[in-house]
## 1
Amino acid sequence: MKVIIGGKNNIAIGVAKHIKENLPDVELVAVFNRNDDGVDGHQLSFKKYCLENDLRSVSLDEAYVEKGDVFLSLEFDRIIKPSKFKHEKVFNIHFSKLPQYKGMYTSALPILNNESESAVTFHYIDDGIDTGDIIYQKVFSIDLNETAKSLYSKYINYGTQLVIENIESILYGQCSGKKQSAVDSSYYSSSSINYRCLEIDLNKTAIEVKKQIDAFTFRDYQLVELFSTKVLGAEILDEVSGLKPGSVISENEQFILLSTVDYNLKVYKDCLDSLLEASSCNNLTEVKSLINPFNINEKNEKGWSPIIVAAYHGSLDVIAYLVENGADINDINNNGTSVFMYAKNFALKSFNREYLEKLIDLGADVNLKDFHGLDVFDYVAMNKQQEQIEFMEKFR
Ligand code: TYD
């Protein structure tokens, strides 16, 4: 059987990897997105993965005439003409709760519209945009403090899971699709948001202002600027606004207090760089003054969060405080390197057993594998230092 995957990011890689490892009779072929430059970013490059794993690639026109059995569009960037394929198994996963939010920017628009749910939807591709019959759908909640980046990450994780769980039926079975309702349907084109000129309308209620900020918060693309300051998240206070909407009530290093149509809004200034710096040198006082619900699990371009930086530098006080306040002790960077893997680098410098034991007490999982399929013990084995291998073996 030949399966052609058109797409990008961790979802295309996750599904390709699963097929490669579990379905040996499948030949995989790839079609890359036009902007895949072969370099890993906050999402890994599908092109890079395919080159490293000897997966053949073709253009979309070649894919149409290739003798394939299934075409999977996983965050693919072009409109497909299903009738050009010689088979009918032409599928897409769309990041929304179809029939709602067909089209673009589905990590931003449901937040902007204050939706409480979204979904990943696996459907047949027909001649319209995200209009095909629905085969599988996984609905999940949009949290109060959801940002575009955290929602995108949910789409990637739930979407990969949905395709992998059903892969045998998708490839070998007869998928039955359900027609989309016309009544609940909505569509947004590329002109629905102008990312080059984002403006926040402050003449709105607190939740409406907050949701605008959260919907455009995606560090790898942009952060919102308010009064020329980059901001990251907003919290609604239980104080009725007395001033004109959009007035600054007060401001300090950490936040701007804003008046809105109804309640006052605490808008946090972005301070990730300072927070990472304080985490690296176990400066608990500084970490306490900088931390808020939005930056506690925030990551820089390398995928480093405060807890990852603290783990690498052995900042135990900061790690304990971060965990107590909601940080993920099993957080990973863009390559899947876990907090415990970072911590082992510090521990090995002085064979500090207690340090790793404390992390395990806090919930660190020693068996996590990164995106190359390697765990902490594999990495220590690669160094070929017997003393280090023996030291780490005790944590297995
Ligand atoms: P993208 O991968 O282009 O997919 P889509 O528009 O189909 O969702 O973008 C993923 C999300 O990233 C998108 O839903 C909204 C967000 N985004 C930004 O925050 N800024 C930008 O400049 C772009 C292009 C996207």
## 2
Amino acid sequence: MDKAEIRQEAASAAASAVEYRRHLHKYPELSFKEEATGQYVAGILEANGIGFRKIAGTGILAKIEGRGDLKNAVVLRADMDALPVHEATGLEFASCNEGVMHACGHDMHTAALLAALTVINRHKKQIEGTIFGLFQPGEEINPGGASLVLKEKPFDGYTVRAVIGEHVDPDLPTGVFGFREGKYMASSDEVRITVSGEGGHAAMPHRLKDPVVAAAAIVTSLQQVVSRNANPDIPTVLSIGRIIADGSTNVIPDSVFMAGTFRTFDEEWRAQAKKHIRRIAESTASAYGVDASVNISKGFPSVVNNTELTRKVSELISATFGNDAVVKLALRPTAEDFGFYTQLYPSLFYRFGVGGKPGSRNAGRLHTAQFDPDENALEYAITGLLTIAFGI
Ligand code: NI
């Protein structure tokens, strides 16, 4: 299909996408509990004669075979999970599931991919190889649905030439796409430290092994990882956001628990930094005569966009919508389990604007009860997916 045909198809598929999106928005489900969402997706695929199977529990993997070498594949991925947020948008299709809301736009991603697949399926003889539509569960929480998808090795035996993920961006106007070559989003690991000493009467610390003072020293010393160990060229964040020393004015507790997040943009440094965190916590504890046990959970890797693929897709989007429709994104310290795909396959994660016309509306922020993306953006999101499916 050429540019004009793609735009026409996207425009006519957009009405269905709005309908899908409103249904999904009304019935949001939390990570790894996307049962009804998966069934809804399956129903639409079935009605359109698109083959699929379940994956990673509640996920759905659709497959459309085109022409030529069918082992040559492109994966279009949408996430499906919602967040534990009480919706306060007042929309007529607001969440019916109390305390759960599509506050990160994953309803938009799922709806756009569903609509795009129906178009692709009708024109599949113009597609090179195989297109997978991956409706992925559990993006929002560890271990990330992407890691569970890949554990099942669904693309073994295929040459995957691209894995594509798109995400809403309320800071961009509708019709604008954001790209960034190379490193884009941070890795994210959870750090938990328990400092164990010997509690007792706070008036007689000389008889105790005080874990509170030691824990305070550990929080401070850990900042060396960022200020002294990290290469200034690699953005790094280590934040301790939770610290519990549950004693009293006159009671020193036996132990102190703390937890935080470690984020960075380089996998080699990420592995080294974890060793530094462990060493600093343990040796600081030891200097205070107490023990520290350090647990660092394996979180999401950083999202690294394939340079060639990013250039190609942003050029295709510019050719369709003009140079003003493409902007360069800044590094982002938030994380995405899409990083798991970027480690294995040439991948691209880009943003599409849902902010409406500049000054015309307020889409709110991601992960808030007021988040209200512009539905007109669905047409652009579908165009993006079709442009990739038919163009790369
Ligand atoms: Ni999200």
